[in-house]
């Protein structure tokens, strides 16, 4: 069973967390009990052993990149805690409770993507930060503010107030080829402006990052040296174009061992544009349930080729159903980009927004068909999805907010309202505590203030009896009834 391990790498990388994926590197089941999974929040630089060959020249790409990649320092404050030692109780009695403030400091990297100060980085680099300090290659320092974050994709957009900054332009990550030279640029172990070289080792890699199941799970794998501190830094091609954001490593030790992973730039560009414009990702859905095609499924369904994804179910009111897709269809390509399996399907679809039209090449009974599908939101609409602000419900006596994508993934649910505070009321009196997630009331699924009020109003038709279902973040489910 994988466990998440958080490690401190000294004062310079106090909250660095490294993604260890032992099973990805070593397939021997005898070692499965030793597997550990950690985020790569920062790791000691180990220069690539690959020589420059032929006409490959890394100098121009490195010079373009180092000035557009920044060092990020974050300070995360911890809520005051009661000071407690041998004389703690006596001091509290004589002088009142003493409190102490502590803070955690972490480091990472970021990439300037526009001259007016927008910077993309990993969400885990800036998550929960009370202060973000950006240091440029010329040693200037500025305070940054968060524009938007996405835990499920591990991307964040921050900004400094500046003009005429050097920045990187996006390359087309769809055009990357295995064996192509790339450079990783970042700040490993607090060493600024470090450049390492390697090749693209694989594409469309699924490495099972916790909480990322509904986000990007189609990484670029490289052997460019990436260590703690590189998180949020740039993966560039030999033209100096941004083709990925370095995010994770696979290692038994926590340091680089030849396997690093980056989020493809086409996906990054889409997420960044959404965060900048809407403050929230506009995720596109086709309205289908799909399965990877393995030998067992191929034998069961008499499928001749394992490439593509199998359509197991077509959802009502979805774009795919409206375009004529049927269960049993096999999707072979999206907008002429080959779909080799579930991972590549997710990567391609993740580059589009609700309202976009996408051409799906399918096989139905071994006959090729092309369907034009209008992508939609999860709820089947084309409306812009905006962040939900917390709200207070007087009937329940609680403050609520919509649950994050990460919680949805971890708990296997697709909607819910989480309690962030309670006042005296029916739920608090009934023993419900903070963090409880309400998923259903009176048989109605709830996901926002409107759906909650509608569900509660149904109780008036049932003599004010409320039937509520929900779940705590630890997975404990609760179902109960009460009177309003």
Question: If you had to describe this structure to a student in words, what would you say it looks like?
Answer:
This protein has three domains: about 1-280, Thrombin, subunit H; about 290-375, PDZ domain (Pdz3 Domain, Roll), CATH 2.30.42.10; about 390-484, Pdz3 Domain, CATH 2.30.42.10. Helices cover about 15% and strands about 35% of the residues. It has helices at about 20-25, 60-65, 90-95, 125, 265-275, 295-300, 320-325, 340-350, 405-410, 425-430, 450-455; strands at about 70-80, 100-110, 120, 130-135, 140-150, 155-160, 180-185, 195-205, 220, 235, 240-250, 260-265, 290, 310-315, 330-335, 335-340, 355-365, 365-375, 390-395, 400, 415-420, 435-440, 445, 465-470, 475-484. The chain is α+β, with helices and mostly antiparallel strands and about 475 residues long. The model is unreliable at about 1-55, about 80-90 and about 210-215 (pLDDT under 50). A hairpin with a 5-residue loop joins strand 2 and strand 3. It has eleven helices and 25 strands.
């Amino acid at each position: 069973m994988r466990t998440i391990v958080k490690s401190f790498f000294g004062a310079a990388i106090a909250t660095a967390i490294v993604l260890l994926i032992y099973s990805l590197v070593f397939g021997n089941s005898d070692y499965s009990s030793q597997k550990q999974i950690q985020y790569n929040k920062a790791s000691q630089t180990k220069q690539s052993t690959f020589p420059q060959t032929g006409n490959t020249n890394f100098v121009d790409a490195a010079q373009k990149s180092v000035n557009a990649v920044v060092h990020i320092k974050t300070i995360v404050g911890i809520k005051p805690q009661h000071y407690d030692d041998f004389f703690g109780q006596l001091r509290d009695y004589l002088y009142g409770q003493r409190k102490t403030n502590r803070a955690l400091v972490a480091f990472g990297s970021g990439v300037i993507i526009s001259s007016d100060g927008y910077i993309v980085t990993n969400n885990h680099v800036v998550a929960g930060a009370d202060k973000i300090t950006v240091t440029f290659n010329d040693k200037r320092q500025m305070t940054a503010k968060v524009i938007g974050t996405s835990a499920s994709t591990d991307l964040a957009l921050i900004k400094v107030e500046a003009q005429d900054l050097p920045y990187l332009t996006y390359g087309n990550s769809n055009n990357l080829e295995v064996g192509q030279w790339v450079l990783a640029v970042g700040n490993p172990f607090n060493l600024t402006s470090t450049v390492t070289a390697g090749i693209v080792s694989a594409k469309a890699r699924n490495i099972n990052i916790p909480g990322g199941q509904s986000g990007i799970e189609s990484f670029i794998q490289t052997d460019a040296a990436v260590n703690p501190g590189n998180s949020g830094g740039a993966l560039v091609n030999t033209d100096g174009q941004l083709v990925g954001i370095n995010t994770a490593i696979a290692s038994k030790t926590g340091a680089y061992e030849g396997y690093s992973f980056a989020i493809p730039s086409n996906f990054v560009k889409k997420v960044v544009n959404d965060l900048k414009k809407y403050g929230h990702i506009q995720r596109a859905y086709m309205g289908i349930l799909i399965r990877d095609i393995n030998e067992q499924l191929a034998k069961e369904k008499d499928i001749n080729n394992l490439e593509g994804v199998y359509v197991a179910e077509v959802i009502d009111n979805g774009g795919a159903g409206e375009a004529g897709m049927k269960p049993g269809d096999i999707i072979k390509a999206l907008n002429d980009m080959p779909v080799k399996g579930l991972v590549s399907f997710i990567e391609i679809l993740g580059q589009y927004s609700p309202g976009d039209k996408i051409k799906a090449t399918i096989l139905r009974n071994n006959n090729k068909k092309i369907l034009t599908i209008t992508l939609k939101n999860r709820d089947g609409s084309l409306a812009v999805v905006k962040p939900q602000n917390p709200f207070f419900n007087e009937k329940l006596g609680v403050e609520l907010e919509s649950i994050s994508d990460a919680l949805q993934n971890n708990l296997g649910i697709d909607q819910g309202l989480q309690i962030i505070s309670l006042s005296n009321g029916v739920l608090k009196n009934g023993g419900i505590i903070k963090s409880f997630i309400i998923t259903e009331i009176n048989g109605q699924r709830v996901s926002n203030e409107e759906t909650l009020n509608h569900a509660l109003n149904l109780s008036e038709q049932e003599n004010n009896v409320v039937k509520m279902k929900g779940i705590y973040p630890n997975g404990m489910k609760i179902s109960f009834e009460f009177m309003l």
